[in-house]
Design brief:
Blueprint (H helix, E strand, L loop, with lengths): L2 H5 L5 E2 L3 E4 L6 H8 L2 H4 L10 H16 L6 E5 L4 E12 L4 E8 L8 H16 L4 E7 L3 H9 L3 E12 L2 E11 H11 L1
Parallel strand pairs: 5-6
Antiparallel strand pairs: 1-2, 2-3, 3-4, 4-5, 6-8, 7-8
Helix pairs in contact: 2-4
């Protein structure tokens, strides 16, 4: 499967509590609500949004990615209140190698509720079933315990630490890598039936 086949018109997903869909300019206030929180942006490569214009600028960038049929994020809409509470995407997809990497961010008010695991689990399903992936990985700064928990909850295995593997906000950080292979995912799915 080619990148353009997925990202020409990204599919919409629905889980028990979430809708994963395209991000639109109407989401600017919701994005600003979480992206303006220093705790949320602490472990991600982008800077905290200081004004609503920062959020609009980022959404404009996302819309350009959609227009160019490039790898781009899904907005995570919380069904209970209809707000976009974060984003999730395959930040890296190498179709030739059948490998992709998950990236995600979630508003602080929604931490600890299993919502990101729910969203990430849906993308695992899609990645293995429709994108012909054999490996999905995710990485996080070593101190980001919340992200590590998400990776563990969706069945990923810790593979190691890349020392000073990323420079984030001027500081060299150790990066933890987790991954799940298609055969491991299928075994997990059978055990949950």
């Amino acid at each position: 499967m080619e990148i353009e086949e997925i990202y020409g018109e990204p599919p919409r997903f629905e889980t028990e509590r979430l809708i994963l869909r395209k991000v639109t300019m109407q989401d600017a206030e919701d994005m600003f609500a979480y992206a303006s929180n220093d705790d949320v942006s602490r472990y991600v490569p982008w800077e905290t949004h200081r004004t609503i214009e920062d959020s609009r600028g980022f959404i404009s960038f996302i819309e350009q990615r959609y227009d160019n049929k490039a790898v781009s994020p899904w907005g995570i809409e919380y069904k209970e209140n209809g707000r976009m509470i974060g984003t999730i995407d395959f930040v890296l997809w190498q179709p030739m190698h059948q490998v992709a990497e998950l990236g995600y961010v979630l508003g602080k008010d929604y931490w600890g509720k299993g919502l990101m695991s729910e969203a990430a689990g849906e993308l695992l399903r899609f990645g293995f079933a429709k994108m012909d992936l054999v490996r999905i990985q995710a990485r996080c700064i070593a101190e980001n315990i919340g992200s590590q928990r998400v990776m563990e909850k969706i069945g990923m295995t810790f593979e190691g630490i890349q020392r000073k593997g990323m420079k984030n906000k001027g500081i060299h950080c150790d990066i933890k890598t987790y991954a799940i292979l298609k055969e491991d995912y299928e075994i997990l799915q059978r055990s949950e039936e």
